[in-house]
Amino acid sequence: MVKQMVFGPTFEEMLNPAKIKGTIRKNAIEAKKKKDALNPINLYNITWVNEHNEPYYFMLPKQLTGTKTTIVILYGKEFPTGSHKVGATYSCAIEKQVHREIEPGIHKLVWPSTGNYGIGGAYVGPRMGYQSIVILPELMSKERFELIKRYGAEYIKTPGCESNVKEIYDKADELARKDKKVRVLNQFAEFGNYRFHYYVTGNTILRVVKELKERGIGNGRVSAFVSAMGSGGTIAAGERIKQEFYEAKTIGLEPIQCPTIFLNGFGGHDIQGIGDKHVTWIHNVMMMDAIMCVDDIECKRGLQLVSEPGGMEYLSTELRIPKKTIEFMSTLFGISGICNIIGAIKTAKYYEMDEDEVIFTVATDSIDRYYSVLADMRKNFGKIDKASARAVHQTVFNPKLDWIEEATFQRRKRWFNLKYYTWVEQRGKSVEELVETRKPEFWLKQQRMVREIDEKIVEMRGF
Q1: Range in 137-141, 309-313, 447-451 the model is least confident about
Q2: How confident is the model at residue 144 (pLDDT cuts 50, 70, 90)?
Q3: Contact assessment for residue 158 and residue 135, using Cβ atoms and an 8 Å cutoff
Q4: Beta pairing partners, 363
Q5: Are 341 and 90 in contact (CB under 8 A)?
Q6: Which of 152, 374, 375, 386 is the most buried if burial means most Cβ atoms within 10 Å?
Q7: How far is 144 from 151, CA to CA, in rounded Å?
Q8: DSSP state letter for 197
Q9: Do 134 and 147 form a contact (C-beta atoms < 8 A)?
Q10: What are the structural domains, with CATH classification, of the chain?
């Protein structure tokens, strides 16, 4: 039986929630304050800004980074699921709904994921009235599976770890063959994901860098946007930034243990949320200026440093970082967030950036879904004490300038050509479709669709 469709915000309202109808915005803020997490009104809390219209960002202490350059983190912990990936899942779902490709009460939504996108799907799908199934690898943190159940979705575990994406695809295909009501919302190929980050994340960064300039921080321009790739959605923010600041560099990150773009490589790793062993359909690699690789163990050791008592004590007593800053920082990051920090430091050092420059990156999720990972780290490496904290800081947050490949036209073509093996040979795309995605106009068209989709949302929800 068809159910009434549930609608949330437009892209413009996710960027500027002050534009949301007054009573709806007020009720959404109240639901968040009351921790009424399962209330569909929380769809209107999918935004990078708080109830006071202030963006969620944090400037890393320079005592930690060792750089003159300001490194700014947009942090995702304040989104309804504790991760900005819920923005991508909502955007994919709402686009399908306004185009009548899915209808609640008729279709079942399947969310292929390696973690946070699946959690986002588990949240968004049921809030919009859809039965939802999340597919993700069995070796992901147990907190991820717990959240999926809490939000009212089912999950299916597939063999392997973060980089075992083909197994996820295969299971999604199997479900779609067996049940004609299944609709697979594949984050690696759905442009709702791309558009959320191009428009909402990218324009939020442009706003923040302007505000920092007004406070006397930075030169008012973005020197680099640094992002590890999972689905290839977040890094789309770099394209919006480049349109404003031509010199801004977009830097992609991969795990050393799975250097797909960097080395046409493969392997397993544990930077959960990135390094999925293929170049995604929605990743415009022709706009990337460099690829850098980061070690997964170093990311997890870095997470220990900023989140465990021994590390936090070191940051206070030896680096003289204020305790309130340390306490706040200890809640902000997951493994991929630390990866992004290391990549940002590496970028500042490699390009010899100065104190007037500003680098942006993101913290996709936060510590709340990695307690089990930290417990394993303590078991295998021991607790962080003063000596080990110093060692982690001096190595992890002072990265070597290795595993870096700058873009040339030939290298970009090589990065791009890797798409063929997944998308043409395995996923049914044509060579003609693939070639089309090398053209700038293809991506400009995707960007222009933001306005069209917003108009459809407003028309169908009635306000």
Answers
A1: 137-141
A2: confident
A3: yes
A4: 75
A5: no
A6: 374
A7: 11
A8: I
A9: no
A10: 18-50+84-190 (3.40.50.1100), 57-81+202-410 (3.40.50.1100)
Neighbours of 296 (CB within 10 A): 21
Note whether 87 and 202 are within 8 A (CB): no
Question: 3-state DSSP call for residue 328?
Answer: helix
Sheet with strand 224-228: strands edge to edge: 57-59, 70-75, 358-363, 224-228, 249-255, 290-294, 404-406
Residues 107-125 pLDDT 10s:
999 998 877 899 999 999 9
CA distance 268 to 179: 32
Q: Which two tokens stand for residue 288?
A: 């990337």
Length of the chain (residues): 463
pLDDT value of residue 381 = 87
CA atoms within 13 A on the CB side of 463: 10
The pair phi, psi for residue 218, each rounded to 5°, is 80, 175
For the chain, the maximum distance between any two Cα atoms, rounded to a whole number of angstroms, is 63
pLDDT of amino acid 342: 98
pLDDT value at residue 186? 93
CA dihedral 192, 187, 270, 418 (to 10 degrees): -100
SS3 label, residue 425: coil
Residue 400's beta-bridge partner residues? none
Q: Which amino acid is at 287?
A: M
Please say whether the beta carbons of 227 and 252 come within 8 A: yes
Task: Report the alpha-carbon distance of residue 162 to residue 139 in Å, rounded.
Answer: 8
Q: Residue 345 has which token pair? A: 């430091």
Q: Encode pLDDT of 279-316 as tens digits.
A: 999 999 999 999 999 999 999 999 999 999 999 999 99
Distance CA 364, CA 334 (A): 7
CA distances from 100 to 93, 124, 184 (A): 11, 17, 14
